[in-house]
Amino acid sequence: MRKQHPMTVFRRMLLLSAMLPSLLVASGGGSPYSSLGLGDLRYLGGTAAAGMANTGIALLRPRSINALNPAGWARIERTRLDVGFLYEGYRTSDPNGRVFQSWGNFNGVLFAIPISESQGLAVAGGFLPFSTMNYNIESPTSLFGSTAKVRYFGDGGTSVGTIGFSYDLLKSLHFGARFNYVFGTAGQNTIIEFSDNHELAGGSIRKTTGAYGADFTFGAIFDDIPSIIPIEALKNASLGVVLTTPTTLNLSYESYYSYAQLKDTTAGVSASMDMPLAFGVGVSLPLGTRSFVAADYYMQPWSKSSPLLPSSPFSDLSRVSIGVERIASVDPTASYSERTELRGGAFYSTLYETVKGSTTHELGVSGGVGLPISTGTLLRLSAEYALRSSANGDLPKDSVFRIGLMLSASEKWFDRPEER
């Protein structure tokens, strides 16, 4: 088999990533909680962080693009492209029974270009999912004395386009900033079908919510803790903080009705929604020469924002996670197992959706590997299992299975010619 040049692999990934935002592989359905607000808010740390419960606010990664903290780009050594795909399976249960639904979708594309390694100067950007609305519920009912089936399902969501930079303010103090633009449309659909009366025609209602707005994310990572706390064990430890500014999302609503031969569309209605400040802090501690443990805390006070539905007010979002990683050897003569990345993690989060005044929570564990394909190219696999339920325990419960498939390719740009 002829070995492909790394440049060829990189260019093919670049072409593929340009196509990915328009691809939707499956549309089976997901959590009923995604019908609330803007849908399920996505929390993504990057292709490497996925296997360690998306922990990484304090991490400087040379072989992965940090999606949580732009200061984490300061140690990227090669031009890098990360592309992700996510499969999700939901087993939802309540006193009436249980159902399993699944879907798969594009999970982001990020690029990073190091300009000056000595100054920590890098430019990075891309597209990431921000929220998804993918519930799918069927319910039998009786209308006009006939049996009918009502189906409720959601589709679409919002994405975020981002561009930013990192820079070393000091040798051990790394700063990063990025601009974020949120955009997209989520749809909520209702379809009524009569199965035993052909004289009654069914119908459908589709309501769409378009959203757009912009904010900024600022981050910093400090990796010389022994200069403040003289403890040798903290030599390679780091602290990180990240803050995203509050903003206002502009919303537009439209409704489409279809009954028998009648079709109608309502005029668009404009509104707005406050998106609160978000803040996170993280720490990373070495466990040896090639291993570390990291922990993050992230919060966003959504309770201060007006809800889209008065019956479902928002709750403060918070997330605590911990992860461990064995760093792969970069020695090309090392065994394949030594050049393989290994990760694990766990998290607990309070989500921003509420139902009947009850908050929702999610508890999960994850694991992952990074498999070297060629020089500078990795195939990263992650698996996550989580339980989602309401605080009072009397609402539907979700068992969530997530499998991530991510490609990370790189090559060396801006090489300076050797002095003669």
Describe the protein.
The protein is mainly beta and 420 residues long. The chain has one domain (6-411): Outer membrane protein transport protein (OMPP1/FadL/TodX) (Porin, Beta Barrel). The chain is 3% helix and 59% strand. It contains 1 helix and 19 strands. It has one helix spanning 6-19; strands spanning 40-41, 79-94, 97-116, 121-132, 136-143, 146-170, 173-194, 203-222, 238-244, 247-259, 262-265, 269-275, 278-286, 291-300, 317-326, 341-355, 358-374, 377-390, 397-411. Strands 2-3-4-6-7-8-9-13-14-15-16-17-18-19 form a 14-stranded antiparallel β-barrel. The longest helix has 14 residues, at 6-19. The protein is elongated, with a radius of gyration of 23 Å. Residues 1-27 have low confidence and may be disordered.
Give me some keywords for this one.
Porin; mainly beta; elongated; disordered N terminus; 420 residues
CATH superfamily: Outer membrane protein transport protein (OMPP1/FadL/TodX)
**Biggest beta-sheet profile:** 14 strands, antiparallel, barrel
What share of residues are in beta strands?
Answer: over 45%
Counting DSSP H or I runs of 4 or more residues, the number of helices is 1
Structural class: mainly beta
Rounded radius of gyration (Å): 23 Å
How do the SSEs run, as a string of H and E?
HEEEEEEEEEEEEEEEEEEE
- Indicate the CATH architecture: Beta Barrel
Average of pLDDT:
85
- CATH T-level fold name: Porin
Kindly report the spatial arrangement of strands forming the biggest sheet.
2-3-4-6-7-8-9-13-14-15-16-17-18-19
Helical fraction equals: under 10%
Total number of beta strands: 19
Regarding quaternary structure, what we see is: single chain
So what's the overall shape?
Answer: elongated
Low-confidence stretches: 1-27
